[in-house]
Amino acid sequence: MAGITDRMIDQAYSDLKGTCGGVRNDYFGLLYLEREFELKRDRALNQVAFGGNDYGVDGFHFDPDKRNLYLFQFKYSSSYTQFKVSLQRLIDAGMERIFVSPNVDDAKNQLLLQLRSCMVENRSLVEQVCIRFVFTGDPTEAERSQVLDKLREDLENKKYLIDSFFNSRSIAFVVEFRSASGKVGPLSDQHHSRVYALPMTEMISRSGPTGECMYVGFARLVDLAGMYRDMGQRFFERNIRYGLGTSEFVNRSISRSLKSIVLEDKESPSVFAFNHNGITLYAEKIDRVDGCHNITAPRLLNGAQTITTFTEFLDKNKDNKRLAERHAALSELRVMCKVITEAPQDFVVNVTINNNRQNPVEPWNLHANDLIQLELHDKFRDDLGIYYERQENAFQNLSYEEMEDEGITEEGKAIQLLKLAQTFLVSDGNIAAVAHMRRVFEDDASYDLVFNGSRRKADTRHVVLCYKVQFRLRRLLEEVEQKGRNKYWFIHRARTLFWALLCQGILNDPDVEFLSDEYGTDMSMKAQYTDYLNAQASTRCRLILAELIADKAYADKVADHNFSFLRTNAAFKRGMNIAYKKWKWVEKRLR
């Protein structure tokens, strides 16, 4: 098709604006219909909108030979971004107005009346509904847009409304972007509404402020996993995050619970729902059929970890005979399930955010009241008057009166549990573990090594000296880099090793007692202590690293610019060997 020109649009606007109204660019759609389907103008005028209130559709055409009903949104622009508003209008209300409730809005334009008449007259003939977004740009660019892809998916999920109008006949549904020149983008497959049976027990419902509805009941994990297997990652597209994998603490807990209930028969399946927070779904609609609930186009808003962990559990044990033997127990695993429906997009987004807003309980938070943590709390307070924040955010909520009552004299900063654990690890030379702090707190053996009883006997001032290094670590690394950018450009990759070597330099310093009295009794970073650390970084740690990367053992890695070895315990050991030869440093720990 030859392109539609500005002159052609100007001429049509001049000829018809007195009778049809609208704005100049409305006539782009008129010309497109005339040329695409070889329509006479009188007929085309009844199939295009002039003015607003179009609900995302400003043109239509029924082709009796192809048995296709075409709905159009026209934009006389090369920018596909202009379709966002039209798509959203279609999703929010347009599809409902066109196919279900045409008489809700008395202000609807004439086009919708003409379209409705055409649909009713040809109800038995239509086999496919095609929504085309026509503009002057490249439809391939529109197809690449993540925003349009998401909105198109939302629009395709409204197919159940089309099915409703055509008496549940199998009507194909295609959404595509087209250029006025005739160029088309990649076509998506004909969309069919996904409907799933979801048996839910103890179902109750609650209405929202503007007609939204929430159903609450207990759903089977096997049914939810079935949706995920069928839909793949699209099942999670409304969720803020996808499944995090079985390496995460929460997911490992779910896996242990599934193993205990299903494979080991140590617990009743009914207990799972008591120990689980529940999940939230969004669905286009929900119907009760023969005692079961059918949900259309479901999307998970919260609970991806549960679904992915359960699916991985099934996959991991698919060849385990015990899984087949315990099929009944598996089928009885339920979680509390909320299903949100009849809700606009912004409402669903808000629900998604709030259902994922709750703060996760980090594994170190679970140890806040361990005996060793209570003992360290007392140790920092009694020795130095420093508050030990073993409970997250406790220090910021402590009043001056409470600090005074508790004997806290250091008001500026607190020692934090997680950062203290990192300090202990680097002082021990276990720098590899710093990158896996969750595992340190989740594994009892690892935790006991970090917070062993000997920590109670450590000189608290030494602990504070090593702890405060992290406050200046970035600056120290930058100053070393400035001494030779070509030589020390890798220095930031050795951050944890550098911290560990600085701690050893402090603990091996003959004047460590002086340092402890001057800088290890409070949480402030005095300029003199920063100067001391800078000297240690430049005249000690820098030289160790320079010799370390020159070691033949790491020659191949350095040549490939692979400095991951600097985060290993072996690198710390080699560094300490260098330090011993140069200054007789030995490994000293905070105990």
Principal-axes shape call = elongated
Order of strands across the main sheet: 6-7-12-8-11
Mean pLDDT: 88
* Helix amount: 40-55%
Low-pLDDT runs: 242-247
Structural class: alpha/beta
Radius of gyration: 34 Å
Percent strand equals 5-15%
Largest sheet: 5 strands, mixed
Number of domains: 3
Total strand segments = 14
Tally of separate helices: 28
Q: End-to-end span in angstroms?
A: 83 Å
Q: Can you walk through the features of this model?
A:
- The chain is of the alpha/beta class and 591 residues long.
- It has three domains: 6-179, no CATH class; 195-355, no CATH class; 365-583, no CATH class.
- The chain contains 28 helices and 14 strands.
- The strands form four sheets. It has a five-stranded mixed beta sheet with strand order 6-7-12-8-11, with helices on both faces. It has a four-stranded mixed beta sheet with strand order 1-2-3-4, sandwiched between helices.
- Helix 4 packs parallel to helix 7 (146-156) and helix 24 crosses helix 26 (527-549).
- Residues 242-247 have low confidence and may be disordered.
Key phrases:
four-stranded mixed beta sheet; five-stranded mixed beta sheet; alpha/beta; 28 helices; single chain; 13% strand; 591 residues
Q: How would you summarize this macromolecular structure in one to three sentences?
A:
The chain is an alpha/beta fold and 591 residues long. Helix content is 48%, strand content 13%.
Question: What is the topology?
Answer:
Blueprint: H1 6-20, H2 26-37, H3 41-45, E1 59-63, E2 68-74, H4 83-99, H5 110-121, E3 128-135, H6 139-144, H7 146-156, H8 159-165, E4 172-179, E5 195-198, E6 200-207, E7 213-220, H9 221-231, H10 249-263, H11 271-274, E8 279-282, E9 285-289, E10 292-296, E11 299-302, H12 304-316, H13 321-325, H14 327-331, E12 334-341, H15 345-355, H16 371-384, E13 388-389, H17 400-406, E14 415-416, H18 417-428, H19 437-442, H20 444-450, H21 460-467, H22 473-482, H23 485-488, H24 495-507, H25 512-519, H26 527-549, H27 555-559, H28 569-583
